[in-house]
Amino acid sequence: MYHTLTAYLQITTYYVERFSRTTTSIGEDDSNMKPRFTGWAGALPAAAAAALAGAALAVAASAAVAAGAPSNSTPPTVSGTAQQGRTLTAQSGSWSGANPILFAYQWRRCDPSGASCADVAGATDQTYTLTRADVGSTLRVVVTATNGSGSGTATSDPTATVSAEAAPVNTAPPTVAGTAQAGQTLTAANGSWSGSEPIGFTYQWRRCDVSGGGCSSIGGATAQTYALVSADVGHTLRVVVTATNGGGAASALSSSSAVVAAAGSAPASTSVPTLSGTPLQGSVLTVSQGTWSGSTPLSFSYGWQRCNASGADCATIAGATAQTYTLQRADVGNRVRGAVTAANTAGATTAYSTLSGVIGSLAPVNTALPTISGTPALGQQLTASNGSWAGTSPFQFYPQWARSNAKGGFDPIPGATSSSYVVTAADVGHKLFVQIKAANAHGVAWADSNPTATVSGPAPAPGGVLAAAITLPNRLVISGVQFAPTVITSRAPFQARFRVTDSEGRPVQGVLVYALGLPYGWVRPAAEQPTGGDGWATITFVPTRLLPLRPHRALVVFVRARKPGDSLLAGVSTRRLVQVRLR
C-alpha cells in the first residue's frame, strides 16, 4: 500500500510540474518530461486516487494563475525632493506574473491630502521634474504592468506637498581679481549664494571714485571679465552680480578694485644674461637675469636652448624651465644658451645669454656611427669600425654582429664579437649590422652601424636564377615539399624541405621561406630560411606537447616564399598550404 501511494504521489508531482511551467502552452510537446516512478506495489483505492487527482488539478490551476497577468504585491514608491525644479523618480514596486513584464508610468497631480488627482499631461516617464504648477500640490504615480497574459495597475502614496523654489540670497559678496592697470583685464567671481539650483549669473561693471563711491554703470560691460581702458585710470571698479533662478532674482555688489594706474612700458634688455658653470656633461649651468628697463615690478621666467657646435640651429630644450640646467648626454658636442623672459603689466620680452663652450663628456657619447667595410656575400670577411666617441679616454670597445629576422628586427649572432666577421650560409638572404659598446671609467654607451645590403650566396645551380632577378610578371612557386620522416609518430624535432622555382620552373636561390604549423601551438615557430643554389630551403620544426599523436590527424603547414625586400603580401611572393600525417 505504501509503495502504491508513493507512485500516485509521483504522478501528482508530474502533473503539478507540467501545469506550473510558465513557458508551456496547450499542445506543447512534453515527451521529455518523465514522472519519477519508483515502483508499484498494488492498486490505490478509487477514493484515494480521486482525492490525489483533485489535489493535483487544484495545484496545477493555482500554478497557472500564478503565471498569468501581472499582480502587484508591493505598491510603487516615489523618491526625490518635493520642491519646484527638483526631479522625482518612480520605483515600480513588486509584481508577480509571467515574465517578461513591461512597465508604463503616469504622473498625477493631487490636492495636499493626496486626493482629487488628475493626470499631468505628457508626464509618462519614470522621472518627473516639478514645475511651478505643482507648488502646493502632491504627486502620485500610476504604474501599469503588462505581460502576455494581461495587465495590472498600482498607485503610489502621495509625495509631500510641493514647495516653491527658494529665490537666490547672497551669502558672500562677489570679488574682483586682476591688475588694476590700463590694458589689463579684471575678472569677477560670483561670491556665494543660497537658493534653489540651478542659479544663473549676469554681470554689470561700474566705474567708481577712489573711495569706491559715486559709481556709474559702464555701457556694454556685461561680461564676467572687463578690459581696463584709459578712461578707468584714477578710478576704482566694482561689479554687480545678479543671480537668477525660478524663485526670483537678487543682486550683490563687489568690493572695489585698487585705483587703476596708467599703462607702463614693456621690459627691454640693457645687458644680456650670462652663463656660469663648466661645459661638461653632468655639470650645472646657471643663467643670470641680465639687466632690464621698463615699468616695475618685473617678473622673470627661464628656458634653455641647444645649438650646434657653431652656435646655430638652436632649439628649445623641453622641460628646461629653471634658472639652472644640468647638461645631458644629448648636449655633448653641442652648445647651450639660456633664455630669460622679463614681464610686467605692459608686456614681456625675451633675451638670450651668451653661448656655452662645446659640451664635453665624462661617459662615452657616440658622435659618428660605426661602419662596415667588405662585400656582404657568402664567405667574404666584413670589418667594423668603432665610429667616433666623445668622453674621457681611454675607451674599450666591444663589437656584436647581428642578422636581420623575419619580423623586421635583428638577432645577435652567437660568438660574433670581434671587429671582423666572415659571412656564413645562414646569413644568405639577410642583412647584417654591428653594434659597438663603448666603455670608460664613467659609463657605457652603444651605437649601431647601418645595415649591409642583403647577403648573397654562391652562383645558382645550372639553369637556376637568383631571387633578385625575379620580377613581375614572373613569380615564385613553391614546387616541391619533403617531410622527414614522412609520417610524424613522436614529438621529436622533424624537418621539412621546400623547393622554390619561378614561373618557368627554374630553381631560385636566395628566396626567404617561412613555414607555420597549424593549428597554432602544435609546433614551435621556426625562423625564416633562405633557399640554396638548388632552390631548396630546410626548416626544422619542434613539436609541443599539444601535438596529437593519433591516426587520421594531420599537421597543416602554411608556407610563404618571398624575395628579400619585398612586401609579405605583394611583389613576386607566393603561399601554399601543405600537410604531413600524424600517427
Q: Could you characterize the architecture of this molecule?
A:
It is built from two helices and 46 strands. It is mostly beta strands. The chain has six domains: 2-66, no CATH class; 71-155, Immunoglobulin-like (Sandwich), CATH 2.60.40; 169-253, Sandwich (Immunoglobulin-like), CATH 2.60.40.2700; 268-352, Sandwich (Immunoglobulin-like), CATH 2.60.40.2700; 365-448, Immunoglobulin-like (Sandwich), CATH 2.60.40; 465-582, Immunoglobulin-like (Sandwich). The chain is flat and about 105 Å long.
Query: What does the overall shape look like?
Result: flat
Number of strands: 46
* Portion of residues within helices: under 10%
Count of the domains: 6
Strand order across the largest sheet: 39-46-45-42-43
Please give the CATH architecture of the largest domain: Sandwich
Q: Could you say what the CATH topology of the largest domain is called?
A: Immunoglobulin-like
Largest sheet: 5 strands, mixed
How much of the residues is beta strand, in percent?
35-45%
End-to-end span in angstroms? 62 Å
Q: Helix- and strand-based class?
A: mainly beta
- Computed CA radius of gyration, to the nearest angstrom: 45 Å
Arithmetic mean of pLDDT: 87
Low-confidence stretches: 1-44, 55-66
State the name of the first-level CATH class of the largest domain.
Mainly Beta
